[in-house]
Amino acid sequence: MKADLHVHSLFSPDSRAQLEDIIAVAKDRGIGCIAITDHNEFKAFELLKDRKDIIVIPGEEVSSSVGHIIALGIDRQIPPRLSIEETVDLIHEAGGYAYAAHPYRMWSGLGEDNTRNPCFDGTEARNSRSTGRDNRRAQRLAAEIGKPVTAGSDAHVPRHVGLGYVELPDTVTNWQEAVEAIRTGNILGVFSENRNSIRSIFYALKTFFKFSLRGFRKI
Question: Which of 34, 139, 159, 164 has most Cβ atoms within 10 angstroms of its Cβ?
């Protein structure tokens, strides 16, 4: 089963992706499981949790004080702008697991030293919005750390859903089993496309434009 563990919906401030469009593209691409990881929001899961045609993992991309953290399996929204340790503690209290997101991403990555923080449950090893170089570095870093890995599209528009994923055992039937397979490292493969140079230039310009519209405040 392919599982895209990093997807954004219209509940993220930088996405307008409708939930039904996300599901439709995921199913078209053979994705059997997705995690909606909106920036500092937890609204999507309540609307999708009863789906029978696809497994939806409750999640959030939390903006810690030093970079983004992926929370999977949580039962509530995690507040932003706290330290890594405070954020991870709250994720664990909410029944979830914490993964260092896109470690080498400019603007929002945690950086190598922070990603090595032992409180993390694992590392996002591949992300389709990261460059090939950053994905290779993230995958090497994750291997050095030796904890479970995640991967995802980091889609902010429906057409990008499924461009990054992990492969889970076909025996997984619900989000709890999916999270447990990820937590224990019971994944069969990790894949994502890489952001090419043209997309990188476009991404940098768009990011700076949105950054300026927010009054130069990070998400």
Answer: 34
